[in-house]
Specification:
Radius of gyration: 16 Å
Order of helices and strands: HHHHHH
Number of domains: 1
Shape: globular
Structural class: mainly alpha
Distance between the termini: 14 Å
Largest sheet: none
């Protein structure tokens, strides 16, 4: 463990843990109950199940990365996880604008602000 890993603010671990649980929860919901998340998508159309499963696996991987980085108290790993999340949420923001979905726009903006703030705090501690 290096000096940066020992000086993480105490509140970062619970916040990152929540991100981990959130990503894993979305993954489980997408995999087992996609109709709850994708109410306006024809889940019986050809190829949709593959796309949903790929999305679920991506969310699961990000959740595991957050969990591992949080347990290891690794600032560099957490920064990378939050950068990935920020890029993902920026993509969600773009989709929200193209679909004219205000709920998606607002939630993506909020998550972008949180991810950016976490990156800033973690970089400040270096």
């Amino acid at each position: 463990m290096d000096i940066n890993q020992k000086t993480l603010p105490v509140w970062i671990r619970p916040v990152s843990g929540i991100f981990s649980l959130m990503e894993i929860g979305v993954s489980v919901q997408l995999w087992f109950f996609p109709e709850m998340v994708l109410d306006n998508v024809d889940l019986h159309a050809k190829g949709v199940d593959l796309v949903v499963q790929m999305w679920a696996v991506r969310q699961f991987a990000l959740g595991i990365i957050f969990a591992f980085a949080t347990l290891k108290k690794s600032s560099p790993m957490l920064i990378l996880a939050y950068v990935f999340s920020l890029v993902m949420f920026l993509g969600d923001l773009a989709v929200g604008f193209t679909q004219k979905d205000n709920t998606m726009i607002i939630s993506a903006l909020v998550m972008c602000v949180i991810a950016t703030g976490m990156i800033w705090v973690l970089n400040k501690k270096k």
